[in-house]
Amino acid sequence: MMITRRATLRLGLGLTAAAVTGCATGEYGGPPRGVRIAAGEPGGFYIEFARLLARQLTAAEPALGVEVVATGGSVANLDLVETGRADLGLTLADVATSANAGSAPFHRAVPLRAIGRVYENYAQLVVPVDGPVRTVRDLADAHVSLGANGSGAAVFGDRLLAATGVAVRADHHPLTVATAELATGAIDALLWSGGVPTPALRDLDAIRPVRLLDLAAELPLLQAAHGPVYEEVTVPDGGYGHPGAIATIGVPNLLVTTPDLPADIAAAVATVLVRGAPHLVPGQALGTQYLDQRSLVVTGDVPLHPGAATAYQDLRG
After folding, report:
1. Residue (of 115, 151, 63, 117) closest to 258 by Cα position
2. Which of 47, 91, 131, 233 has the most crowded CB, counting CB atoms within 10 A?
């Protein structure tokens, strides 16, 4: 079961008083080894969060050499995790659910285990303030970048258009390319899925003011097709240059691995997520629930890795 946005806000940060940067967890007792985290695109929250996590994990567990791998996003990350080219990966919960079931865009079931639900993700359908687009329906025949190939945004974009019946001229550009093209008018809109404010979108807003489309009307269509993994969330006032809060669609972000990850590594990462939580929030983050010990364990259709589950139980003490 997924917790709602309202419920996570009621939880508050709930961070342990033991959160001290660089304090050793002592969870990993094996020989020195590397840990690779499949992250996301430059300019996005995934890679920023992964770098913060790598810093905290390296400080807490000196025997683990942590490397962050830039990728296209959720689908690419799960491919790296499944094939052993990464030990951990960040993914949207809807993509992880599809992977577990072996449904599109996956061709077979991908067994996953969660280390935790790390934060809420916001679907951001971005258009210029001075443009004519006000609703998703206005995008008919428009030129839109629907997220990079291999990203969760691309999966979400395809599902959004299928649910609404809106046909666009679609490209799948990396975020840095999409923001540059929106700034010059080469495209009419871009879709991104991430935290708020996403650094690359904040920079775009300074060059060409942008706003987000309200997606509340599209939520029931997506839920009817794909279930409650999608929920309504609100981008707070001040996320970018536009005034006022905007309703959009949220999807939890999960940190995942395979069942083969050693239990002591899974426990070490889970412990860092709790104890290092104050140091894992990207700067200027708005309206995003991070790393509450009660929400970390709510991972939907992806079961917790036994090592992570044991660590959370021990931390509750």
Report:
1. 115
2. 91
Rg (CA), the chain: 19
Tell me the per-residue pLDDT of 31-71, one tens digit each, with 9 for 90 and over.
Answer: 999 999 999 998 888 899 999 999 999 999 999 999 999 99
Quick one: DSSP state of residue 16?
-
Which candidate, 155, 137, 138, 133, places its Cα nearest to that of 146?
155
194-219: pLDDT as tens digits: 888 888 898 999 999 999 999 999 99
Under DSSP, the state recorded for 156 is H
pTM listed for this prediction: 0.82
Instruction: Report the distance separating Cα 134 and Cα 132, nearest Å.
Output: 6
Contacting residues for 276 by C-beta, under 8 A, at least 6 apart: 19, 21, 53, 56, 57, 60
pLDDT of residue 194: 85
Distant-in-sequence, close-in-space partners of 2: CB < 8 Å, separation ≥ 6:
93, 228, 229, 231, 252, 298, 300
Q: How many CB atoms lie within 10 A of CB 2?
A: 21
- Both structure tokens of 18: 């033991």
